[in-house]
Amino acid sequence: MLGCNKQTNTKENEEITESKLVNGKYDPPVTITTGRGLNTGDVKFKNDEDIHNNVHNKWAKEALGIEIKYDWIVADEGDQFNNKIRLSLSANEPLPDVMLIGDRQLASDLIESGLVQPIDEAIEKYATPRIKKLFEDFPQGFATSTVDGKRYGIPRYSGGNGSDSVLWIRQDWLDKLNLKGPETLEDVEKIMDAFVHQDPDGNGKDDTIGVTLAMKYNLATWMADGSWIFGAYGDYLPKHWSLGDDGKLVYGSIQPSIKQGLAKLNEWFEKGYLDREVGILDEEKAIESFVAGKSGIAAAPPWAADWPLPDLLQNNPEAVIKAYPMPSGPDGNIGRKGEGYLTGAFLFNKDFKHLDAFFKYYDAIYGYLLGESEYFENGMHEGYDYVMKDGKPVYDKDEIPGGWVNPGKYNLLGDIPDAPFLMYDLLKQFHRKEKKPETAYENILVARGDLWLESAAIITDQNEHRIENLFTGPPTKTQQSKGEFLDKMQMKVFSEIVYGKAPLSDFDKFVEEWKAGGGDKITEEVNEWYKSVNGE
Question: In terms of domain of life, where is this protein from (predicted)?
């Protein structure tokens, strides 16, 4: 814990003050500082721009009188970003005005430090009706940053189901081997057996695998996902907290259905359907086999149609990929990892005096999502996500000089803000011809292509089978002291069972050791948190 580290090199906290607006624009301009984890594989620039100087920052200053400045940039939004914030706290250095915090423990530490401010008053005073409605519709977004009844973080909502997975399968392999797409887990096994033993890539070598899985950190994950295997046997996933029959949260990893999933994975490993190194593969390393054309099946979200699936088509121009629903298990059960409702929260330096400007900026961008923006009628920025031809906006990526990029990635929020379940519901309607795109946002969605639309429709059709992690609070006291040990024990046992190095009965021993080693106490603490956020 960082405890109550009080910085001495900041101004005394003052009341929230509203900056002067002249014709809807701050004059003189208001400066908002932030820090950023910038993944250059995800954020693309053009016209010699960078995160400091780009079309979006220029727009914010010219249209709103808001100048966005980055105090620092690190290479990713995860560990490097979190470490930078922690180092600032330890060194008693000033924090940026606005910080997008995705780590629950770090958010808790910042709130406890007293260096960030509560925002209930600001929400009431500055949030527009459409923003207030978003917060009212999805109050779960505040669960991670509410302490003693005070809200400290503005949610950065996820797509709700935006990172849920479909099965991506090599359709050209299916066609070559006269196979149909799967409906059941048994169908998947038949397909994998053919992919492994019937040389679907035609190179005359025994070098293909059935399915790409990442197992290094968790089998229920964001890419090369294996949650659907466990979901075929029950409504519990590894490392997820779900409601048990008594209405209390239970730890998924110790439920009997997980044992069935591990047994199935061991069977697949023994039959050669899995990568021989599956136990040490993380998500990005695991997906390489699919992208390289050596694997026939991979579970990943619809956004994989933008990355990394196009790399497969570059490597294998004749390859054809198709999205399929998650298969049912022996008893008809279907389940997949369900994305949580938020990807982080915006926390604000206690000395930041311009929450009014932040909400004005947030509302301007959020309005674009709803087709209600006074600033982005045709798209975010001309020449980036659209181009004007003959007086009309064109969204075809191939028609944009210099190529299409997503200028939403340049903004203070990290991207265009999501409203849970909105995007994929729209994509489903477009795919089924139930609705035509009307707004700039909707036209840009359609321009993402058929793979996006079809896979999003599949995701939406199977929303009832989502299995969410219902514990979204900061790590409990016992998790902080025992969690790392218990996680390592779990992954060791799971890996050894899958590899056949340990008998399936070791799962039962693991359950008892987990409970006795701190798991029962963690379960008690997690349920105390769950009661507190649900008003019980």
Answer: Bacteria
